[in-house]
Amino acid sequence: MIEETAFPDALAILPSDTYVFDMAPGATEMSLRIVGQRKLNNGVGVTAVDLGLLAFDFKGTSLGGFRRLRSNSGLVPEAVMDNEDAMLRLQTDRLRVAVFVSACIYGTHAKANHSTIRGAVLPGLDDVFSYAQVRDGRLGLAQFELERLLAKMRERKKLLDQRKLHSASISLETLTQALDLADRLLASVAQYETTDPVTLMVLSYQAMVLHGLQHPGPSIAVAAVVLEAAVTELLYALGLVEGRPARLPLLDPAPAPMSRSRVKTLRFNGALGELKELGVLDAYLVQRIDAVRKARNDFMHEAKAPGPRQSGDALTAVRDVLRICTGERGFELNTGFAYRC
Description:
2 domains, 10 strands, 11% strand, two-stranded antiparallel sheet, alpha+beta, 4-stranded antiparallel β-sheet
């Protein structure tokens, strides 16, 4: 017999080992106090909790309203297996939104503080928390979820004990600016041609986390994907392709737009050359993009492992290209390469 139940529309994540929200210097404890809330223009509700938790409500969106099937007898029916696959895809898509918002928040905080991002993590399907909001301005967690959460709080407790909140506490003002950034990027999705800002931010965040975890090769591989996607998108964003209105301010003087067939024959190096010739990308940035792609190719095709300096340089190149491609300059997705010797 197959049973059908409602699957939760909400989840929460702890996207870093360090950051908290709206914690004043001298604070001695953390609770589940709700610091800020926003319903983004894609309908997803975001709630920030003082201890660094980010909660997401997908009710009423394309990522909500899922019905889960279960079978309590013998051989599992194919319909139940298909339903489980769909559930996993759904949770993966939800995490993508969660990582996008995390990238906007941490990136805005880093830019405002002229700092790198410390302790960011890439949450997996086993890292989500279920929750229910309560009326007294705090987030409610089931006891078993609370115990899981407390087990992850060691680093934050150290911050409180050592009074290091000056760079680890994200203010309400910064949180508001970050959610404004997320809203602007979401509002522009339909104006992108070959990629979208959510994908670009999520992949950039992944590259950053991999660099911080001392995996320069995989970090460079992801960074190269971002650079190639963003460079191609720039041709359309600047109105350089026939039939596609510009998303970014037009160049002055504006060159004659090229046909779509011409764009296809350019390939990446041709697109890079066009943007350099038009002054969109300066020679030094083009040189850095080429260096990232060479390091990626050496790693992927010849198993030549790059070093942390190369993956760090790749993140800087990604930052500079994304600022041009998105038109947003108020974020910094970069982190240090931690080591001991």
